[in-house]
Amino acid sequence: MEERINDIVAECTAGIDAAVSVKELTDCKVKFLGKNGALTGILRNLKELNEQQRPLAGKLVNEARSLLETRFDARFRFLKEEELNRKLQAEKIDITITPHIREVGSLHPLNAVRRKIESFFISMGFSVYDGPEIETDYYNFEALNIPADHPAREMQDSFFITKNILLRSQTSAGQIRTMEKVKPPIKMISPGRTYRSDDLDATHSPMFHQIEGLVVDKGITMCDLKGILEMFAQHFFGQGTKIRFRPSYFPFTEPSVEVDVTCHNCHGAGCRICKGTGWIEVLGAGMVNRKVLEGCGIDPDEYTGFAFGMGLDRIAIIMSGLDFKAIFENDIRFLKQFK
Ligand code: PHE
Predict the structure, then answer these.
(1) pLDDT tens for residues 213-248?
(2) Secondary structure in 3-state letters for 195-213
(3) Residue from 150, 250, 257 whose mutation best tests the ligand 1 pocket (most atoms within 8 A of CB)
(4) Which atom belonging to ligand 1 lies closest to the Cα atom of 309?
């Protein structure tokens, strides 16, 4: 009996020493000390021994069990610590390694210009409206006092999809959509894409961007238009920028003007950018035509308003010294300059 117990202790100790993982050690413990384990098996057979042998055998089995348990515990502690160390080693972070520098993008010059213009008008209490790029003839022309046979249609060679539907040739279509929905006082800007049948070259593009502005209220005059554009010019092109109005013609405004600002490069002295004139044309504007107000259900004897439209691309081009092609090609080497 004693011999058998000693064999089990020796065998189990060898198993303990050979186990290299917690899992192997657990299996080994089950094999020797578990419910159906080798040592437990001896206890079960105690009844076959006689009265004298039984207590001695029981004592030996218990001693063997507690000895083995101590060995198991020690080995468990050792293996657990080893596993932890292995894990720590594998997850070690080397804080001295140079990190990957993340490249931070930048706004496209067109978006930068649009945001700067928007933030000025928002600060002056304007709302920003969006309008569809696919328009009906009514919003793009008819309601803007440009009937079918009007020669002004030829000023804008448009992309018609059907007889009645076209890619909008001007954001002015948004004036009508706004006035139909919102009753005065109205103070809005509406930026977006516009389309005209031009080939892409340094100064033209079949797709370009405009920002429309519209203010309608009681007692609005040309002075209000001039005032807000003067403030805009100073905010956008810098302190000291002057503006001038030149008489012009748009069917939907009366009177109409074209607005120039002093060249931001030479401040009016004349240079290559302003072609020696000292001035740069930036937008078209005027007082909203009575007929247009009437068509939108606004009484022109009670309300007056002004509208303006500027070419975003033109302004981005003037500010960056680039051309239409560069602006739309999206060459990353070009865009990187504008961080
Ligand atoms: N829509 C005109 C254009 O594209 C610009 C404009 C807008 C003029 C609003 C007057 C008032 O040329």
Answers:
(1) 999 999 999 999 999 999 999 999 999 999 999 999
(2) ECCCCCCCCCCCEEEEEEE
(3) 250
(4) 7
